[in-house]
Amino acid sequence: xxxxxxxxxxxxxxTAAPEELRTRLSLSGTAVEALEQTxxxxxxxxxxxxxxxxxxxxxxxxxxxxxxxxxxxxKVDPHPPESASEKASAATAVQIDSPxxxxxxxxxVLRGVKVGPSPDWLRxxxxxLGQASINNVVDATNYVMLELGHPMHAYDMDLLAEQRLxxxxxxxxxxxxxxxxxxxxxxxxxxxxxxxxxxxxxxxIMGGGDTExxxxxxxxxxxxxxxxxxxxxxxxxxxxLRTEASMRFERGADKEMAETASRRCAELIQQLGGGELLxxxxxxxxxxxxxxxxxxxRKEFLRVMGADVPDAQIEAIxxxxxxxxxxxxxxxxxxxxxxxxxxxxxxxSWRGDVTREVDLIEEVARIYGxxxxxVRLPAAKRPAARLEYAEADxxxxxxxxxxxxxxxxxxxxxxxxxxxxxxxxxxxPARIANxxxxxxxxxxxxxxxTMARTLEWNLNHGQRNxxxxxxxxxYAWKGTQPVETRIVTLGATGLAREKGVAETERAYGFADLKxxxxxxxxxxxGLAWTSGGPQWLHAAHSxxxxxxNDSATATAPGPASPVTPIGHAGQLARRVSEKxxxxxxxxxxxxxxxxxxxDYKSARxxxxxxxxSRFPAVERDFSLVLADGTTFAxxxxxxxxxxxxxxxxxxxxxxxxxxxxxxGKFALLVRMKFESLQSTLxxxxxxDFSSRILAALEQNLGAKLRAQ
Length: 708
Hints:
The protein has 20 helices and 35 strands. Strands 20, 21, 22, 23, 24, 25, 28, 29, 30 and 31 form a ten-stranded mixed β-sheet that branches. The model is unreliable at 550-562 (pLDDT under 50).
């Protein structure tokens, strides 16, 4: 809503500068996004929430300013001169056939109006607010809409069949050429304004071209009505036609303002184009009702806000906003600031969004100043307890941050093509029934899709070295039941190590990702890897991840068998990288959290104290020649199967392929550390361990010790 500062001053005597007014309005809940200078003076651009239809006119913003600065608000009560010889009710008639769609309809008649250009002051104000000047009569209706927030429409009365109006539902397939020159096909769910022969306007949205005001028009019928917000919203969306009028009606215009706006518009037309206003108004108001009452108590105010506001200020604020508070606590009415104080308030017609006591509390608090209330936590009705997996999540988060990753939070709503690129063939996606946009039509089936988008965004914004992680959920259908799966997703690209004084830079690779995941896996007893993964990962640089069965004792003797896979990791396939326009290698991993957290609890429960050895450890390197396709996990399992208690760690140090090696072979440097809790290891013991290890590797994997 664009607001002219000088226009506001016609309703309230503001002395505050526009910049100060902008700040005060923003702090009270009417966010003013910008302040700029125009030919018509300073202009404030306010961002209104959908419930504040009362502020869609200058008078509503002026009411807010008057309350904020404790200034009187000028009442709008126009009294245009009327004909003494003819009444409006004798010249026209209004019939409402669909009261569920139209709650009030007023009509005024002016004769002998001279249609022409608008004066400069009016044209400048309209153009500053984004409205094109058409002629003085149409401009008057737009001016009143922007002033009072109530849409108006003017008909050339001589073009109305029988010079009367009927408010009814459109007939199925009925056509109407609107003011923008487009012929539109209507449905029976839409409300139209019709004369005795045909529809002449789409109610609350746009008038018809057949009865528009022309330079030759002399007799004008003014419409000021109230239409059902839901029906206006549906019709506007169905027709793809959103106007200033429809925007106001669909948010809930003020029924009681219709007659006042009609008088104000008639007065303005007389000033601009002369003419005779027929006496009275045709006002069809089938659903008139008493304004509801709402009670505000100090007890509830204290409970919600945690601090008090003086009686005088509560009453001044509510009076200024139109709620007409009256003390209802008879026993304590004479006592100021009584804890039992209560007020009966009347809901003003322009504030249909205020229906409960807590709404009144919000109104008082925002005008008084939310910043004046002390910060405090509300009293808890039940003790707080951490979720069962919170400890494991915290530990995972600590490890990932320690490894140099940064946490992100993404929106899990994605576009169908991107989700399908990462989705398993057997997965049934959770599609949104009424998506707001095509690129937000499905809940993600995997965290990889949002992680890829985030890597793309960072690379496009010049961030070349990225390590990210996210705790989130994936969504799918399993039969007729929706399934949400907790996951942690990692994404990385760029350098693993930047250039230093003594080190060269090194690109992030699959080995770095695997090492980081193994660090995570230690909290749950270790991870088991198998080669390969989903199609969106590089076939040669990917792996499927499972938990080890012996999760409580990851370093215990004996091989570790994999269980059900809990995730995948690897380099994005080329076609995926090209789709997301990733100009460098990117790596993504995804793990299910629930099984990881379950094994974390088991591993924590099985932890036992193990003393450090008082005797020196000994390291031995084994340069093994292995057949292509042999994994380090197979090497480790073969060594662990020997049950040598003195083996404390097994690490892969280096890998070599090239000349001096038989075809189909590669060299792997394995470093093992031996230590004993009882004594210093002798050379004979170490030789025995080495011999047994080499024999087992040769027997199980065909490994040979590489010649020096």
